[in-house]
Amino acid sequence: MKIFLATLVNRFINFGCRLFGKNGTQLPGYWVLKIFGDDIVNYVKYPKYVIAVTGSSGKGTTCNLIKHILVDAGYSVALNEYGSNGLIGATTLIFNNLKLNGEFKKDVLLLECDERHLQFIFPKKKPTHLIITNLTRDQPVRNGTPEIIFKEINKAIDDSIHLIINADDPLVSRLKLTHKGKITTYGIDKTKHSFKKPTLNNVDFAYCPKCHEKLEYSYYHYGHLGDYKCPRCNFYRGVPDCLATNINLDKQHITIDGNEIYINKNALYTAYATTAAYTLAKVLNIREDKILYALNTDKIASKRGKTYYIANRPIMMLETKNENNLSYYQSCEYIREQKGPKTVILGFENVSRRYKENDLSWLYDVNFELLNDVSIDKIFCIGRFRYDVKTRLEYAGIDKNTLVLVDDLNNLLNLVEEKSTGDIYTMVCFDMTAIIKKMIEEQEK
Question: In Å, how far are 149, 176, 199 from 203, measured between CA atoms?
């Protein structure tokens, strides 16, 4: 009866949200939890596969790829595609897909989960599979250190869960020391972009979790992700169960199990997400030809990369996560690698959607020096913190004549068209991406 009533409440509030033109990704779940308590999710009759994806970055891209593969393989999938990845958003998704008797409508529940909320989304009934993409410095005001987040994730894990973890991250690989259930690892082989020593201040985990000796690396991909080993004990990366090789970002393909696989963006994070999705599909015993068809034949829309046009100039929207220096690093590196003259749009209206604190110290963790490049014609600083962004870019040695302050966001597109040249790249967070996208669509009408 409790599930029946909770499902009715969810449907009623969902109807109201649609009536007022809202997505309704939060409000229904909020009231379900408010009325029936946080343990209501324990009474749900979950499907055979409940897959959770968590980590500091790459969750959304990985989830979209997984859903694409599963749907092509004939599964029906429920996914929180709009990024509502906390307890309230997950509750909304779950009850959106329930019959009145509490049975799940879809074959698979696929959840992008906030690292801190994982233990609350699955308090008793655990996911069948948990993918952990990476653990790096992220939202320090809320999360503190990556080690704190590791402990929070670990609270949600028991030995019934099949873990699928990024072997290139030594902090994530720490789970191999304690987890007695199934573990499948994935990783990426050395690429031409790998480096011998860290060149940036973004290594968040440097010591062996077993004996505390400093780890030695054969190479780094970025941050503390790479091929590592402890010189004192037997903690090391090893060869992942699923290894992506022949990484060719220019041609946008990688090789797994001898198969050439398309990646939908020439960036390393996409290679990681594709490898994670492939690994899960293999664990679920999906036929290899179906996996390859899904990844190679169909073109998959990228959550972070969407191309529009301003005055016939392509604008690539790189959704870049605030308070995450590696997310910014990857966007900066991607822009720097592109050929021809370039224009960059950079800034944000709010540091976070979760809290009101506006700590900006993380801007100085980002290697904006990568944007000090002759190919970049102009950088437009937008949003409420545009002066802070401009100051940080000046500290990075970027010429003041390259920087343009945009005091009126409504005038952004005109300024870009009049004052800059080359392809356009936005390096902004999710909220600002939606604003810019809407502006472009309105201009095209």
Answer: 16, 21, 9
Q: CA geometry: angle at 134 spanning 247 and 142, to 5°? A: 145
The CA-atom distances, in angstroms, between 199 and each of 2, 212, 213, 223, 427 are 56, 23, 21, 9, 22
Secondary structure of residue 317 in the 3-state scheme: strand
As a whole number of angstroms, the distance between CA 75 and CA 59 comes to: 20
Dist CA 419 CA 323 (whole Å): 29
DSSP state of 118: H
Instruction: Name the segment(s) of the chain with CATH classification 3.90.190.20.
Output: 305-444
Q: What are phi and psi of 195, to 5 degrees?
A: -140, 155
Q: pLDDT tens for residues 2-30?
A: 899 999 999 999 888 888 877 788 898 99
Reported as type and span, the H/E element at residue 229 is: strand 225-229
CATH number listed for the domain at residues 2-190+233-296? 3.40.1190.10
CATH number of 305-444: 3.90.190.20
Residue 137 main-chain phi, psi, to 5 deg: -60, 120
The helix or strand, by DSSP H or E, that contains position 440, with its residue range, turns out to be helix 430-444
| Residues forming beta bridges with residue 108, ordered by sequence position | 49, 77
Rounded to 5°, the CA angle 359-361-363 comes to 110
pTM for this structure? 0.89
